[in-house]
Structures are given as structure tokens and as C-alpha cells.
């Protein structure tokens, strides 16, 4: 059954949109989406379990990887109930408070992931450019402080615009564009003064996602410059190989964001299904791919997983 603007919705609820025009295929669509969520949850839990139980992985690089896996795990948990709830035919409605809470976690976790990727870039920069001082620079206390700063920056800064959503007057048809709640989607339905939220959100994106991506890019310029000073070609390749997993994780995170932004900005003529698909890729692609990338590209994790499965068989 398609979502129509004249659908009766109570004043305290919103109607989530799944994949317009594909409602009859929801039972079939629910199968791949269920498998994706299972892979997201099990993959990131496996990475966290391996890092926790393997003493050889108790070093800065893997602490940051554990932060990334935990962030991806929480991102999957924050949207699984609404996405699968629609596809399984359980409910399309979501209350205002629940929608605001989901918005808080979706956007907050995106900022956390961006911050963790920046911290991992700093980790690679330190390991390659100052290998002798690596452990003295990235101590456990300093890593903990970096984690606290990332969490504080991500969740404290978005609190003000998210709280304001509670007091907006929503006079337009309460139909959201995705199968989960987003800040910009709620603003589109509000009839109150949204200028503060709009400008604050833009400034926050510039100061977090954009700034983080620029700093990551600068760190790799410095890494490349340092690697090129190494005389041995074999050593150069060995140093660069340690960065491959992180580079893939950065691309997996930023490419969907850029794609979703381009679709929202220039793809108004595209089918609503494209918008819904890009929204789900933005949410699910990084949590799905990061455990696969690090399990394949990181030898210590790959060997530990192989030994664990061999023992089970």
C-alpha cells in the first residue's frame, strides 16, 4: 500500500516511507535487508570480540578499530527497528519523541565515525612518520581522552538543534522521506522558524565532516611525503600497506555521504526509490563493509578469525 499525503496520522506521530512503488515486493526486499543487518551486527561484534580476547591486538591501532566497530554496531541498532518494521509490515508510524531520539543517534554516530576515522589517520601518521615515538605518543590515557573528545564533540554539539525539534509546529503532511528519521527531513515538515537549525546544521557539517575529511587528506599527504623518503621500495610498500584498510574505510564512509548529498541537491527529478536507496546505503554501507575490509586487509585479525573458526570445526 503506497503512502499518500491524505493518510490519517495522529498529531504525535510521523509516517515513515520505505521504497515507494515497491510495496508489493516488501516480503522479498526484507530478505536481503535482514541479511545485511545480521551481517552488520555479527561482523562488528566479531571484530570487537577478536580485539578484546587477543592480547596481541591490544595496541593503539586496534583500540581505534574497536571504536569504529562499536560505532558501526550502534548505527545498525539505531535504524534496524524502523527499516525492518516497514519491510515486515509491522508499522510505518513513529512517535515524535522516538523520531527525535533516532535523529540524535543517527547524526551523532555519523559525527563519531568521522572523528574516529580522523583519529585513525593520526594513528597511521604517527606510526609511519614517528615510529620510535609511537607508543609514547599514543598512550592508553591519550587514546581514552581522544575517545571522550570525539563523543563530546559529536553528541554535545548536536543537542541544541535536536532538542529544538521537540518544540516545532509540524503543520505539513507528516510523511518522512526515508525509513528512518533525519534532521533535514523533520525540518522540511516544520512550519516554525527553522533558520537556527538550518544554519547550525550547516556549520556543524563544515566543522566536523568537512574539516575531518580535509585533515585526513592532509595527513595522507604528509604520510606520502614521509614514505617517499624511504630508500627501499619494499619498505615503502610495507608502510603504505598499513594504510590500505583505513583508506578503504574512509572511502566507504564519505562516498555514500557525497552520493546522498548529490541526490538531494541535483536529483529531485529522480524516482523516490533512488532517494530511499541512497539513504539506506548511507546508513548501512559503512557498518557492513568495515568489518569485511579489516578482516581481509588486517593480517592479525584475519589470522585470529581463521584460528577461531578452525577450532570451532
TrEMBL record:
It is found in: Cell membrane; Membrane. Residues 43-294 form the G-protein coupled receptors family 1 profile domain. The keyword Ribonucleoprotein does not apply. The chain crosses the membrane at residues 28-51, 63-88, 100-122, 143-163, 199-223, 244-267, 273-294. GO terms for biological process: cellular response to lipid. CDD domains: 7tmA_OR51-like. One of its GO terms (cellular component) is plasma membrane. It is a multi-pass membrane protein. Gene3D superfamilies: Rhodopsin 7-helix transmembrane proteins. Its main location: membrane. Signal peptide: none annotated. Keywords: Cell membrane, G-protein coupled receptor, Membrane, Olfaction, Receptor, Sensory transduction, Transducer, Transmembrane, Transmembrane helix. Putative odorant or sperm cell receptor. PANTHER family: OLFACTORY RECEPTOR, OLFACTORY RECEPTOR 56B1-RELATED. Belongs to the G-protein coupled receptor 1 family. This is Olfactory receptor.
Amino acid at each position: 500500500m503506497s503512502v499518500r499525503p491524505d493518510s490519517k496520522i495522529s498529531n504525535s506521530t510521523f509516517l515513515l516511507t520505505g521504497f515507494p512503488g515497491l510495496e508489493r515486493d516488501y516480503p522479498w526486499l526484507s530478505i536481503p535487508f535482514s541479511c545485511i543487518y545480521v551481517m552488520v551486527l555479527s561482523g562488528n561484534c566479531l571484530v570487537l570480540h577478536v580485539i578484546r580476547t587477543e592480547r596481541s591486538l591490544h595496541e593503539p591501532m586496534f583500540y581505534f578499530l574497536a571504536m569504529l566497530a562499536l560505532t558501526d554496531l550502534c548505527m545498525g541498532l539505531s535504524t534496524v527497528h524502523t527499516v525492518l518494521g516497514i519491510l515486515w509490515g509491522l508499522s510505518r508510524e513513529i512517535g515524535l519523541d522516538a523520531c527525535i531520539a533516532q535523529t540524535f543517534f543517527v547524526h551523532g554516530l555519523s559525527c563519531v565515525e568521522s572523528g574516529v576515522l580522523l583519529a585513525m589517520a593520526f594513528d597511521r601518521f604517527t606510526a609511519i612518520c614517528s615510529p620510535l615515538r609511537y607508543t609514547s605518543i599514543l598512550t592508553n590515557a591519550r587514546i581514552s581522552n581522544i575517545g571522550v573528545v570525539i563523543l563530546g564533540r559529536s553528541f554535545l554539539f548536536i543537542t541544541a538543534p535536536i532538542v529544538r525539534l521537540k518544540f516545532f509546529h509540524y503543520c505539513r503532511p507528516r510523511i518522512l522521506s526515508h525509513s528512518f528519521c533525519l534532521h533535514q527531513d523533520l525540518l522540511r515538515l516544520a512550519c516554525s522558524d527553522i533558520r537556527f537549525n538550518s544554519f547550525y546544521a550547516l556549520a556543524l557539517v563544515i566543522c566536523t565532516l568537512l574539516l575531518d575529511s580535509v585533515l585526513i587528506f592532509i595527513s595522507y599527504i604528509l604520510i606520502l611525503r614521509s614514505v617517499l623518503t624511504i630508500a627501499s621500495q619494499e619498505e615503502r610498500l610495507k608502510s603504505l600497506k598499513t594504510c590500505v584498510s583505513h583508506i578503504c574505510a574512509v572511502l566507504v564512509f564519505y562516498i555514500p555521504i557525497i552520493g546522498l548529498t548529490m541526490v538531494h541537491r541535483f536529483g529531485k527529478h529522480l524516482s523516490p526509490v533512488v532517494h530511499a536507496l541512497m539513504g539506506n546505503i548511507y546508513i548501512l554501507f559503512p557498518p557492513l563493509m568495515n568489518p569485511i575490509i579489516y578482516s581481509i586487509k588486517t593480517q592479525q585479525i584475519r589470522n585470529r578469525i581463521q584460528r577461531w573458526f578452525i577450532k570451532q570445526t
